[in-house]
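Phosphomannomutase/phosphoglucomutase structure dump, as promised
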Amino acid sequence: MPDLTQLVKAYDVRGVVPDQWDETLAELFGAAFVTVTDASRIVIGHDMRPSSPGLSQAFGRGAASRGADVVRIGLCSTDELYYASGALGIPGAMFTASHNPAQYNGIKMCRAGATPVGQDTGLDDIRRLTEEWAVSGPPATDATPGGGTDQDVLADYSAHLRGLVDLTGIRPLKVVVDAGNGMSGHTVPTVLDGLPLDVVPMYFELDGTFPNHEANPLDPKNITDLQAAVREAGADLGLAFDGDADRCFVVDERGEPVKPSAITALVASRELARNGGTGTIIHNLITSWSVPEIVKEAGGIPVRTRVGHSFIKGEMARTGAIFGGEHSAHYYFRDFWNADTGMLAALHVLAALGEQDRPLSELVAAYDRYASSGEINSTVEDQAGRAAAVRAAFDGRDGVTFDDLDGLTVTGPDWWFNLRPSNTEPLLRLNVEARDDAGVDRLRDEVLAIVRA
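structure tokens r here:
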């Protein structure tokens, strides 16, 4: 029996095509997905990777073989697939490997209403069935094979987003958008159409081989083109999306990156105002202290969670939260079925900037109160041992506390750091925040000296 544990991750399926998986496996995944979700109708979308159309078609064949009707929405962003799942009220599957290199592909799956399918909510069952059926084939079924229809939801998706943020009265803005040859090149022209925006497009051609740069805007080297273009064009801001366009990264008019925590705080303030100054806001434990501070000041209730979209979405459902944000530039909205959409966050930034006269750097300064290190990775074989050594080094210091919500978080009077092991690699990930850069540098160097000893 094949072992698919390296292919089926905590939140999705992801691996190299055809080395780790192919259309034969995709068809079995489709059959298993329908079996586990007990769906009579599903929606499937895919990104621009060369392998995506074939894999998605195979998944659809597997789904139909178990009696499900298949709605094919074709080329789309991941949040467009979530929109379709939410609006149609049916489970969905998105074929994408997000920001991974071209030889990768994957499946992000959800139940009706864009509810995530993760390791503990059906993905492990899908993996086990797929492993069994790869040997024996799916069992016979009395179900009548499902049919298939093609449906374009881009206009409806765009209208839904535009209905959540009023951009009609903003001042004219020049915005550079780097699509990274990913799916925002498909969605941005429709979503931003008719607004008082001078859009300067970069790499809008859909190309799953990523000829210009990786479609991962959190890596600084992948936004250098955008930064230069913003400065050269004298633009008001720049937006960069990842490959499947569910994450959005922002640079200001100087070409300087705006921290995702600042965007989280900005959007949280706007969503609280839109909801009468009350509501719960979810933030993961790597986001800046600025986020819960600003949420409280705006009348909201901040709730701290582990890193990862399944935890965020779970807490949003449990608390009825109106918005959630992560340090990785994932932004989640109650009015988008608790799913993440970088495009809606981008619309909020455009609205906030366009509703007043200051440049973006001045606007976001109020939401960015602390210095931070960003995420620093260290290759470590004994992750638990190194983390224990760090804990021991800080244990007993005045005013220092520990918590283990997700990895090790150590908090002092005017600083904190988090040390988390990677789930898939021998890495420890360090994030540090303090009052100023000097404080960050001191703490970072002390912790890394122990981690890398």
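Residues 31 and 62 are 4 Å apart (CA to CA).
lmk if u need the other ones
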